[in-house]
Design brief:
Strand order of the largest sheet: 1-2
Helix content: 40-55%
Largest sheet: 2 strands, antiparallel
Number of domains: 1
Distance between the termini: 12 Å
Number of strands: 2
Amino acid sequence: MKVGITRQMHENMLMLMKNMLDLGELAFSGIGGSSSGAFRNYRSQMMLYVTKKEKDDMMALFREGVVEVCPCGASLDGGPRWDKCPDCAGSGYRMKGEH
């Protein structure tokens, strides 16, 4: 099965975010770990950062005519998450002409 660039980019961003959150949890382990307010703030900021960067990348590809909005309805507006869509994996964009 061919993996589209948008799907691969989205899954890479999700893996990066998970790794950064795991490292953050380790760093905050001395002050309450994942239940601390400091970690919750870190997690929120990390999710916002990843979402913004991924949106910026997808919009650049969209403006260049490389990608199109995926008809599955997925969106990064609610934050980055994985979806079962075979074209976009939850990013909301797929390669132009991919189906």
